[in-house]
Amino acid sequence: MSRTSTGRHARPVSPRDSDASSARRWWVLAVIGVAQLMVVLDATIVNIALPSAQAALRFTDGDRQWIVTAYALAFGSLLLLGGRFADLFGRRTAFLAGVVGFAAASALGGAAGSFTTLVTARALQGAFGALLAPAALSILTTTFTKARERARAFGIFGAIAGSGAAVGLLLGGVLTEYLTWRWTFYVNLLFALVAFAGGLLLLRNSRRPTGARIDLPGTLLVSSGLFCLVYGFANAERHDWDAPQTYGYLLVGGLLLTSFGWWQNRAANPLLPLRVLMDRNRGASFAAALVASAGMFAVFLFLTYYMRLTLSFSSVKTGVAFLPLVGALMVSAQLATIVLVPRLGPKPIVPAGFALAAVGLAMLTRLGLDSGYASDVLPPLLVIGVGMGLIFPPAMSLSTAGVSADDAGVASAAVNASQQVGGSVGTALLNTLATSAAADYTVTRDPKDPLVLAEAALKGYATAYWWAAGFFAIGLVITFMLYRRGPAALDGASAAHM
């Protein structure tokens, strides 16, 4: 009779054990799904509450941007460090620490009595989110290693990641309208309680790689580089692109990230091993996450403006109006990950998602002052939702497929960083283009006429939609060229203790 390495008799795995293990995996998905939703919706849930928070704490319009920027800066610049922390010290440890820290930062934000405290809370949310998000995705990667289960799990997880912004708009509207703006922070305590309790019960820690260390020079280079990049794009919203506050930070960020790439090829324990980036499908997935996140910004921001200001929707009604997009995304996500990508491979599916999203954005450019929701807004929302479902879940799955368990955290962090940088690019570039187009429209018209101002706003929105459609068209070309033909090997990284 065979024995294990410890000398004990090996016990055959019974069907009951297998069923219990399978059930446990789906409970793990539920737990990390709750945590992921908490992180992704926080990028938009607070935006709805900003006017109320501004009135309560009496900060200026110029200061208001820092409530958004502080979160993005901390989250974007610390993601790779958070992912490597999960690889070195355990995904369970990183996950639970991230949940507790995020909850504490949210409690601080909800109780904030000053602008400084609120900005500090948002920065802390971003920092702990950078620890939590890669840990959650890497847990998913190492938990679901069978191709069919992995496909279904990533379909669900990708749908959560892709629809979190819309859920944040709805939840932020409900909480602000029926409770107070402070509940857009306090609600995270409920998410965190569920995620922490589930993580404590269900997750097991991964083993620390022998002899591995934190790459301090690499950490400083990439964190500083991502900080400068995100900050430079954030400054583009308040300054011209040729202002030193914009191009200076972008230039320094580019140099630091280039230096980071050079160092990773020489470091003994690289923060982001180049082997993680060398696979074509994985590289295509990182690019897909970056480009899609940049284009998606136009849908949520400018369409929110349109429904609030032009169609006079309440904040709650605006959030509800995005739900069809969420539903379409969830359906297409399952279809893509379970049926289409396993049979056809990512090459025709992800580019098709980019094409659909581009068509949906082009349809939005036709919106006018007398357009209706059901006839003019809903159809493109459904098209964009289907397109997003074909992009995000396959890209997230393939970005971590095939990596070793020791690299799962940093690979997860890399795709999260791609999304964050893409969102920052979209925020800065599309806002600037929309504002310029609206200003140009009023040059030869009466800028005090309410009708002219409304039409100028529409001109700005349409400009943003066209550019976002261009982003998706670029994504189509990139992913079609990079993804390999044929079905991809979707088996996860080598199983590891969670």
Quick structural overview:
With 498 residues, the protein is mainly alpha-helical. The protein contains 16 helices and no strands.
List strands and helices in order, with pairings:
Blueprint: H1 15-57, H2 61-89, H3 91-110, H4 115-143, H5 147-178, H6 183-202, H7 216-236, H8 244-264, H9 275-278, H10 280-310, H11 315-321, H12 323-344, H13 346-364, H14 373-400, H15 408-442, H16 450-482
Can you put this structure into words, describing what you see?
This protein has 498 residues and is mostly helical. The chain folds into 2 domains: 21-214 and 271-482, Growth Hormone, Chain: A (Up-down Bundle); 215-270. The chain has 16 helices and no strands. The protein has helices at residues 15-57, 61-89, 91-110, 115-143, 147-178, 183-202, 216-236, 244-264, 275-278, 280-310, 315-321, 323-344, 346-364, 373-400, 408-442, 450-482. The longest helix is centred in the first third of the chain and has 43 residues, at 15-57.
